[in-house]
Write a structure and sequence with these properties.
mainly beta, two-stranded antiparallel sheet, 13 strands, 26% strand
Length: 208
C-alpha cells in the first residue's frame, strides 16, 4: 500500500506568509490554437512537502543539493503525538515509543488543512532533535510548515538540526497514515545551491 504525503499544488495552497504562492503562467495553450501547451511555475521552493537545505538556516552551509540522496529513501517510522495548540513536541511526548528507524515522521495534527494557514501549529523542542539523533535518526519529518514556532526568529530547532546534520522534511500530510514502519521515498530536485526543494513524498508499507 502507498500513502501519498504531499498536498496538491494549486493556487489554493497556502505558503508561509510573505513567501511566493504557487502560480501557473501559461505561455502556449493547445486550447488557444498553439501547437502545444507550455507553462511556467512561479513559487517558493518551500512549497507543500519540501526538504530544507542547510543554507536555509546556516550561513555558509550547502544547498539542498548537498544532502546525500540516500537520506530520502529507506526505512521510516511514523509516530503520533497529542500536544496542546502552539506547544512544542518534547521528548516526553514520545514516552513509550521505541524509535528504531533512521527516518522519523511526527504526526501532530496541528496543521490539518494545507489550504488554510494557521499559526498555532506544533513545533519541535531542540532537545527532542538531540534525543532522536542519539537514537540514530537522520531525517525528521513533520506535518507542519516549520520545525520552529511561527513567531520564532532565533530558530533554535533549525540550528540543532544543523549542528547535528539531521535533515528537515516539512509540510507533510499525515492525517490518514497509521503509526508504524514503512519505506519513505521523498526525493528533492537537484536544485544546486537552493535553500529547499519540493518533494513528492510517499510511504510504502513493508511486508511483515
Amino acid at each position: 500500500m502507498i500513502f501519498d504525503l504531499s498536498p496538491p499544488i494549486s493556487d489554493r495552497l497556502k505558503v508561509w506568509p510573505g513567501d511566493t504562492p504557487p502560480r501557473r503562467e501559461v505561455l502556449l495553450d493547445l486550447d488557444r490554437g498553439d501547437n502545444l501547451t507550455l507553462s511556467t511555475l512561479h513559487a517558493t521552493v518551500h512549497l507543500g512537502s519540501h526538504v530544507d537545505g542547510p543554507n536555509h538556516y546556516g550561513r555558509g552551509s550547502g544547498g539542498v543539493d548537498s544532502w546525500p540522496i540516500d537520506r530520502f529513501v529507506g526505512p521510516c517510522q511514523v509516530v503520533r503525538v497529542s500536544v496542546e495548540p502552539g506547544a512544542l513536541v518534547r521528548v516526553e511526548h514520545l514516552q513509550g515509543t521505541t524509535v528504531d528507524a533512521p527516518r522519523l515522521l511526527i504526526a501532530t495534527g496541528s496543521f490539518p488543512d494545507p489550504e488554510s494557514f494557521r499559526e498555532d501549529f506544533n513545533a519541535l523542542d531542540p532537545e527532542l532533535v538531540s534525543f532522536l539523533h542519539d537514537r540514530g535518526v537522520r531525517l525528521i519529518g513533520v506535518d507542519t510548515p516549520s520545525v520552529d514556532p511561527f513567531s520564532s526568529k532565533e530558530l533554535p530547532a533549525h540550528h540543532r538540526f544543523l549542528d547535528l546534520g539531521v535533515t528537515i522534511l516539512e509540510g507533510l500530510v499525515l492525517a490518514k497514515v497509521p503509526e508504524g514502519r514503512y519505506e519513505l521515498i521523498a526525493l528533492p530536485l537537484l536544485l544546486v545551491g537552493f535553500d529547499a526543494s519540493p518533494v513528492r513524498a510517499i510511504l510504502r508499507t513493508v511486508p511483515t
